[in-house]
Amino acid sequence: MSATYTRRSLTAAAVLAVAAAAVGCSSPQDAASGDQNAPIKVGLVYSQSGALASYGQQYKAGFTAGLAYATNGTGKVNGRTVEVSEADDAGDPNKAVSAAKDMIGKGVKILAGSTASGVALQVAPIAAQNKVLFVSGPAATDGVTGVNRYTFRSGRQSYQDVLTAKSFVGDATGKKVLVFAQDSAFGKANEAAVKAVIGGAGATVSSILVPATATDFTPAAVQAKNAKADLVFVAWAGTTASAMWQALDQQGVLGSTQVVTGLDQKSTWPTFGAAGGKISFLSHFFDGATTGANENAVAKAAREKVGGPLDLFHPDGFTAAQMIVRAIAEGGDDVEKQIKALEGYSFDGVKGKLTIRAEDHALLQPMFQVKFGADGQPELIKAVAPQDCAPPAAAMKS
Length: 398
Hints:
Helix content: 25-40%
Shape: globular
Strand order of the largest sheet: 8-7-9-10-11-15-16
Number of strands: 16
């Protein structure tokens, strides 16, 4: 999301209250609970359409590749077929909640997906109410970490983005930092993270939160220029990123201060144009992070199964499949055993070594510093070790 995909203690990150009735106990889920030969049902609820559809497409392709990898091409775990169903939430929490309830009623044992942060925050309570496992996807809001025992995540979170960005700042004492973000759960999570991490290190942090429906970004860009910040941290997601960057460049923001943002999906790279060289990038993932000179075996397998270069959120889907196969292999239909199997689990993923922190289910993972080279392609500056961008442990809420 160009932090832009970017994307206390952040345990104060807001979690939306959800008053949703649990699915009734009498369901096909119960009917199949004793049959160890029956398929185990997994439901993917993600953005097939809407502003984040391209992210959802990558997530799904990564999930398919990851399931094939983790099951050695069989699609089975302990002899049981993993039966995957899908629903499009279009980035709408209400649609996601409805789809999740419908899937649970039809016997789905595990939910996954959540491309959007606002969606993840509303699906997580549904999983807890119905005691099913939920593996959230690209949704970056810190509120997902520790929201309940049933919820895990297969991607990074905003705090990890900001800790990576902090490495570009140097001594933050006395500096003015501006957060330029969308007025959404994703944007607010980044705002909270910057205040906690960089503000906590001595900077004065202010914010410009732009309505998610905005199409004219000139007024906000002028406001950003007038702020005269030492650092502008941009957190943006979706199809309006190009127009937003154009406005910031036209109003002189990129030429007058240091701008740090996340490296978005590959299709967005040309939109930076000459401006790309003026920006410092933190990266959740790009194909050069762990391939080529930085190749690892899982990334190689993922590229082969996806059938081409990997993009920003392929790892999130791939990792979700790895986690789900682990949960099924160790826990079968028993959600308590599934949870136990994932807590503290360390494994090799597309990004490198991944660890699910037992206390709050944060996914500890490497992050990356990136710059654009003269050829317009991103170049890895360095990988930031998982422990160096690990968010503070959050208290498990339920």
